[in-house]
Amino acid sequence: MEEYFNSHISNFKYTALVVLVVVLLVLFTRFLSKRLLKKSREKWAHDLSPSFNIAQKLLTILWVVLGLIAISFIFVDEGKYSLLNDNFKLVLYLGVLTVLTIIFAAALNLWFKHHINKRIHEHEDPTNLKFLRYVVVSSVYITGVLLGLLAFPSLHGVAQTALGGAGVIALVIGISSQEALSNVIGGMFIIAFKPFRVGDVVAIDNTIGGEVTDITLRHTVIRTWQNRRVIIPNAIINKERLVNFNLDEEKCCEYVEVGISYDSDVDLAKKILREECEQHPLILDNRTKEEKQEGAPMIRVSLIEFAESSVKLRAWAWAETYGKSIQLKRDVFETIKKRFDAEGIEIPFPYRTLVIKGGEKLPKSVEK
Description:
alpha+beta; SH3 type barrels; five-stranded antiparallel sheet; elongated
């Protein structure tokens, strides 16, 4: 036993040294990860724990795998040292490249988030930065993958062509579907022509309405009034009819419409409708100077339709934003109902006259 130990003492020392180096690298990786994570939180006020945890785990696995490869030199013939050495370099290259790609992408993402929040805080438009963040971070990952392909001789041509410039476009077209490309191009059109921006209130084809919260390479995210997130592919949203309530001017005119019976006093109803709109705290005086000098009323109220069982009145009520106009309309409906009840103005139910063939004519009755 002693003779065996003495004859392999160098191998034991080599193995112990490799294990010690691996342990030290693992401990150093954990220490460095915690240190960098703490500094990033203090400087940027963002949590990078997921990215750092992934990088730390990958590095830990890398050190262990490299240690096992290094120890395996003891058990193979010298003729295979070259193969092990190539495998060692390949694993080291891919491991370090993967970790650097993740860390670099996370750092860029953190930088973009910081400046996006800064723009939002300063009430500036963050749309371009949000979209650019997805482009840059995606480019980092794609570049990392292509650099990884360079490690394999059989894939040198593909990687070099893709990294050459125009090859990137050719590679993307080759591996992407037509729909995916349409969404990416649609997102670029949105950023270039800006039919809407992050933070705008929009309505799409009169079915979906809410605030735009994000524009990515693939889709646009809209937060509805029920606080639901609607994900719409960029290629689709570019084809839809879209109303932007924040484009150019934010002030909004809301139609406040109400029907009264034919027997009710139209002038009194118009007066009540005008007063309730004018008294609302969210009302916006949209009259020009000339209209004010001429004594034009703040709220224009008109009879717009003779319906089957009611006379329809409309008030044009202005507010600073679309959201305020909706709140104004709902509040005014409530106060108008109370005023109409107090003043004896009827908001009628629909009336129908039914005639039965072969029988006598029925009197008017309220349809239920």
